[in-house]
Specification:
The complex is a heterodimer of chains A (about 260) and B (about 180).
Chain A (H helix, E strand, L loop, with lengths): L2 H8 L26 H21 L9 H21 L3 H20 L15 H22 L3 H5 L7 H51 L3 H44 L4
Helix pairs in contact in A: 2-3, 2-4, 3-4, 3-8, 4-8, 5-7, 5-8, 7-8
Chain B lengths: L1 H11 L7 H133 L6 H26 L1
The chains are: A mainly alpha (about 260), B mainly alpha (about 180).
Function (chain B): Component of the F(0) channel, it forms part of the peripheral stalk, linking F(1) to F(0).
Organism (chain B): Actinomadura spongiicola
Membrane topology (chain B): Single-pass membrane protein
Chain lengths: ~260, ~180
């Protein structure tokens, strides 16, 4: 938010939406500060995931019917596309975590284009941070448990290199594994959702502003373009939402595997 | 003034700084999903999928087994049929052999019988011939003696002499006949 947009907001001119898109007051006046829209829909998202999979897998049949078919497609996707390529024979053991992470993130992301909700929960850094931190602690716990408290930290350094290289390599390796990896893990999801939501809000506001708020002959074509781009970007966002959920879960599987077995 | 306030507000709502309450809600939401989807539902579907795999593999195995059994039955049936055909042909050959044997036996018996009849007839003829020869010899003797007596005029009543002369004569006759037979044969 810069001075120009602040000035513009008071006038009749079009003002692009900024970070205020992500600021929510309490749901009702005088309500607790924490009871905001993202909080409500974060919990709602987890309930949607639980209800859907409850109706699919509560009483699974050998010959699947109805919702179970759909649930199995989801399970197979996570198992075959995310679990097995990284975790191999350990996949089944980690499927509960991968399923939970993937479908919770995906439904949170989908909320960005669901009417009325229209907000990607993961565009608030706290939510991806919780998931990334969980994966991070699991990774370190597994590393220490399966490779040993010392070997876990030495295994990730390749051996047989000239001594000076290690002065560079060791800090980079530790920095990347223990600080940058969890940070980028969370921020990648957060930033994608944040940007996507901003883009959608911008183009839909363009359409709304030039066609309804301040309709002018000159602005009409701009408004039409705004609506069309919003439609295209919504489709694109649907892909991004899925892709980011997929990527986040894939990285989670990769980190878990790096804890279970040394990479080098 | 307004600008400063808004900058302050923006700093307060830095999108990279998480709200504490949202962290709590995030943990809660994730925990709910982990407990229900992770701990309860995923193991259920995993169990069902494993059972399904087993059922399909078991079904395939059973089908294979059934096919093997069918093949075995077919083989047995074929073997039985072959054995039956072999037995039938054996029986037929045996019957043919038996028939031939019976015919041969009958032939042989008939031949034996025929030979026996012929031999009997021969023997009878021989005996009759001997008998005839005997009586003929006596008759011829008496006739020839009588004839000779008449011819030489000398009584040759004395029987001893008579018979000696006749016997000698007959023996000569027989001798002659035998030599003649030898020559002809």
């Amino acid at each position: 938010m810069n001075a120009q947009t602040v000035l513009a907001s008071s006038g009749d001119e079009f003002k692009a939406p900024g970070p205020e898109l992500f600021e929510f007051p309490p749901l009702f006046a005088g309500g607790p500060e924490w009871l905001t829209k993202p909080v409500v829909f974060a919990v709602f998202g987890s309930l949607v995931v639980v209800v859907f999979f409850w109706s699919a897998f509560a009483n699974p049949k050998l010959v699947p019917r109805g919702v179970q078919n759909l649930g199995e497609v989801g399970y197979m996707f996570v198992r075959d596309q995310i679990g097995r390529p990284f975790l191999g024979k350990n996949t089944d053991q980690w499927m509960p975590l991968l399923m939970s992470v993937f479908f919770l993130i995906w439904i949170w992301n989908i909320f960005a284009v669901v009417p009325i909700i229209q907000f990607p929960i993961a565009s608030h850094i706290a939510f991806p941070a919780v998931l990334a931190a969980s994966v991070y602690f699991i990774k370190i716990y597994l590393g220490i448990k399966h490779q040993g408290p010392v070997k876990y930290f030495t295994n990730m350094i390749p051996s047989g290199l000239p001594l000076p290289v290690y002065f560079l390599l060791v800090p980079i390796e530790y920095l990347s594994t223990f600080i940058l990896a969890p940070f980028t893990h969370a921020v990648r999801l957060f930033a994608n959702m944040f940007a996507g939501h901003t883009i959608l809000a911008f183009f839909s506001l363009v359409g709304f502003w030039f066609l309804f708020e301040k309709p002018t002959v000159a602005g009409f074509s701009v408004g039409i373009i705004g609506v069309l781009v919003t439609i295209v970007m919504t489709a694109f966002e649907l892909l991004i939402q899925f892709l980011q959920a997929f990527l986040f879960t894939m990285l989670a599987a990769m980190y878990i595997q790096s804890g279970l077995h040394a990479e080098h | 003034m307004i600008q400063a306030a808004s900058v302050l507000a923006a700093e307060e709502n830095n999108p990279l700084i998480p709200h504490t309450f949202e962290l709590v809600v995030g943990i809660f939401s994730f925990a709910v999903v982990m407990i229900f989807l992770g701990k309860v539902l995923t193991p259920r579907i995993q169990k069902t999928l494993a059972e399904r795999t087993e059922a399909i593999e078991g079904g395939l195995e059973r089908a294979e087994q059934a096919q093997q059994e069918a093949q075995q039955v077919l083989d047995e049936y074929k073997a039985q049929q072959k054995a039956a055909a072999l037995e039938a042909s054996n029986e037929r050959r045996k019957a043919e052999e038996q028939g031939a044997q019976i015919i041969a036996q009958a032939k042989e018996q008939a031949q034996v019988e025929a030979r026996r009849i012929v031999e009997n007839a021969k023997a009878q003829i021989e005996a009759e011939r001997q008998q005839a020869l005997q009586s003929l010899r006596a008759e011829i003797g008496a006739l020839s003696v009588e004839l000779a007596g008449r011819v030489v005029g000398e009584s040759l009543e004395d029987s001893a002499r008579q018979s000696r002369v006749v016997d000698r004569f007959l023996e000569e006759l027989e001798e002659r006949a035998r030599t003649q037979e030898q020559i002809t044969s």
